[in-house]
């Protein structure tokens, strides 16, 4: 059976480093609060780079790493597109010289990258497409309320991209399976209320244009949903929990990642933490964390890797793969 196989990974971060100390000078917060409550030590914010700019940079590196110059599909997961219309993916495809590849955005907030992987994998397995470029890219700094300490300290900007190619099911780099889910009853826990058809906001209108999050409730949902999804996925692909070498969860909070590991019965040592370096980069967090783990030699060919994400919607999703020999192009 044909399966999607991971053949290249690339990442991009904006140039501007924003430390906890810098935020403490204008918000009622401290480096100590941010580190102990979230694990975040710094993040990168755009100083003009758009989501499409970061997506194109990560995409270019992933293509170069995989040594390919043509793909048939570009799937871009983002909450912060360059424009409400059109989608950002076609322009990214065009800038990358990908001709008339099918290109579209996916909006599943912090679960977006796992959703995008699932769609591209299924399209490859079904023969709908050949090679695909899957990107998670965000510029949350553009939707954060600068006065809101509870969200400003958490989010960062960045992008990660992978190349998927048709290959053998079961081969290293092929996705063993996917679990995806949602619960729209929780939509108000994480949202940008304005700017859509329900609550219109003009370009200059501040009302409703900022990201809001009910942190405590989101914390509980994140642990429960990722643990449920990852357990279901492991059962469906027949992996024992103690066979997981590396757990790459959505990078929202170190306490969430540790609670997830505890719920799953996976040692905390197997958890990848990248939010100390980049904060919560939403749809970009999983590919950025994978690149970090590989750079630090924590990901070795043959390792069993479990990915699990949770985000606004509410949405969640998990997948698993045996890590391949993988070229990586980082920032
Ligand atoms: N600095 C100092 N104090 C702060 C800050 C800050 N930056 N932010 C909030 N506080 C205060 C609050 O005002 C509150 O004060 P009070 O007790 O006087 O009212 C106190 O700290 C505790 O606030 P909580 O919100 O209860 O803090 P908590 O320990 O829950 O941590 C946090 C907040 C970090 C947001 C946590 O709830 C969390 O990580 N939630 C999950 C976020 C998440 O998973 N997001 C993923 C999905 S996001 C997406 O999909 C886009």
From TrEMBL:
<feature type="active site">
    <location>
        <position position="280"/>
    </location>
</feature>
<feature type="active site">
    <location>
        <position position="250"/>
    </location>
</feature>
<dbReference type="InterPro" id="IPR013747">
    <property type="entry name" value="ACP_syn_III_C"/>
</dbReference>
<keyword id="KW-0444">Lipid biosynthesis</keyword>
<comment type="subunit">
    <text>Homodimer.</text>
</comment>
<keyword id="KW-0012">Acyltransferase</keyword>
<dbReference type="Pfam" id="PF08545">
    <property type="entry name" value="ACP_syn_III"/>
</dbReference>
<keyword id="KW-0963">Cytoplasm</keyword>
<dbReference type="Pfam" id="PF08541">
    <property type="entry name" value="ACP_syn_III_C"/>
</dbReference>
<keyword id="KW-0276">Fatty acid metabolism</keyword>
<comment type="pathway">
    <text>Lipid metabolism; fatty acid biosynthesis.</text>
</comment>
<feature type="region of interest" description="ACP-binding">
    <location>
        <begin position="251"/>
        <end position="255"/>
    </location>
</feature>
<keyword id="KW-0443">Lipid metabolism</keyword>
<keyword id="KW-0511">Multifunctional enzyme</keyword>
<dbReference type="InterPro" id="IPR004655">
    <property type="entry name" value="FabH"/>
</dbReference>
<comment type="similarity">
    <text>Belongs to the thiolase-like superfamily. FabH family.</text>
</comment>
<dbReference type="InterPro" id="IPR016039">
    <property type="entry name" value="Thiolase-like"/>
</dbReference>
<comment type="function">
    <text>Catalyzes the condensation reaction of fatty acid synthesis by the addition to an acyl acceptor of two carbons from malonyl-ACP. Catalyzes the first condensation reaction which initiates fatty acid synthesis and may therefore play a role in governing the total rate of fatty acid production. Possesses both acetoacetyl-ACP synthase and acetyl transacylase activities. Its substrate specificity determines the biosynthesis of branched-chain and/or straight-chain of fatty acids.</text>
</comment>
<protein>
    <recommendedName>
        <fullName>Beta-ketoacyl-[acyl-carrier-protein] synthase III</fullName>
        <ecNumber>2.3.1.180</ecNumber>
    </recommendedName>
</protein>
<feature type="active site">
    <location>
        <position position="110"/>
    </location>
</feature>
<keyword id="KW-0275">Fatty acid biosynthesis</keyword>
<keyword id="KW-0808">Transferase</keyword>
<dbReference type="InterPro" id="IPR013751">
    <property type="entry name" value="ACP_syn_III_N"/>
</dbReference>
<feature type="domain" description="Beta-ketoacyl-[acyl-carrier-protein] synthase III N-terminal">
    <location>
        <begin position="104"/>
        <end position="184"/>
    </location>
</feature>
<dbReference type="GO" id="GO:0033818">
    <property type="term" value="F:beta-ketoacyl-acyl-carrier-protein synthase III activity"/>
</dbReference>
<feature type="domain" description="Beta-ketoacyl-[acyl-carrier-protein] synthase III C-terminal">
    <location>
        <begin position="234"/>
        <end position="323"/>
    </location>
</feature>
